[in-house]
């Protein structure tokens, strides 16, 4: 029950994480959140509107970036430039039909891009140190070990942060389909074969654009069309409907950290067979 164990472990994390992140320092720029999605839609084709939106949400970008870096980041920092590029990317790639609010989506993109930048910078710092290292200098060797340990620990913290964000985003997306984490644990197939079969159905759904689009737009399984691509009964699909939808959303969305929790079971199943 890999998925069940993960949900039991992680659901508490997502519940404990407060939604005040968008409320503390952005009240002045979020005076009309109900229309932000419409503004983004206009900004996709209107460069002046896009520039205005980027300018208006600068405090939001600073806040998100500062939280990732665990220190205040002003406009002169490279990290802020990365955040601006990420916000612009969010405007270009946002799709309201995916089920998330724009600011949640933009925050996720900013965090990922800033984290990627930090990883790149830490790798470069380590490489420079290696080039300067003297083989006869034990102190430098010890310092290198400390640097590597610090970098490794920092990357682990970034991964935990990224996973926590994805869980929050995934929880919000599931809500659009009237699925909760507790329901997902309950409806998770008990046997490995059944879970594996349901995941394969979800993969098939996610791999077919017409089926994936139907799911995201209608918020329900394209049952009739889906049955043309899978070798199982209608009853089986209907019985595992919520689980199939939940797995398909992971495959369709950019939930790279969460995929780790559902892929290994397939490898284990093959070994057992």
TrEMBL record:
Record-linked NCBIfam families? sigma70-ECF, spore_sigI
GO terms for CC? cytoplasm
Instruction: Describe the protein's quaternary organization and the partners it interacts with.
Output: Interacts with RsgI.
Q: Where in the cell is it found?
A: Cytoplasm
User: Which GO terms of type biological process are on file?
Assistant: DNA-templated transcription initiation
Alphabetically list the UniProt keywords: Cytoplasm, DNA-binding, Sigma factor, Stress response, Transcription, Transcription regulation
Anything known on activity regulation? Negatively regulated by the anti-sigma-I factor RsgI.
Write out the transmembrane intervals.
Answer: none
Q: Which residues bind DNA?
A: 223-242
Q: Which family does it belong to?
A: Belongs to the sigma-70 factor family. SigI subfamily.
GO molecular function terms noted in the UniProt entry: DNA binding; sigma factor activity
- The main location is cytoplasm
Sequence motif Polymerase core binding, residues: 78-91
What function does this protein fulfil?
A: Sigma factors are initiation factors that promote the attachment of RNA polymerase to specific initiation sites and are then released.
Stretches assigned to the RNA polymerase sigma-70 region domain: 53-123
Name of the protein: RNA polymerase sigma factor SigI
Q: Which domain of life is it from?
A: Bacteria
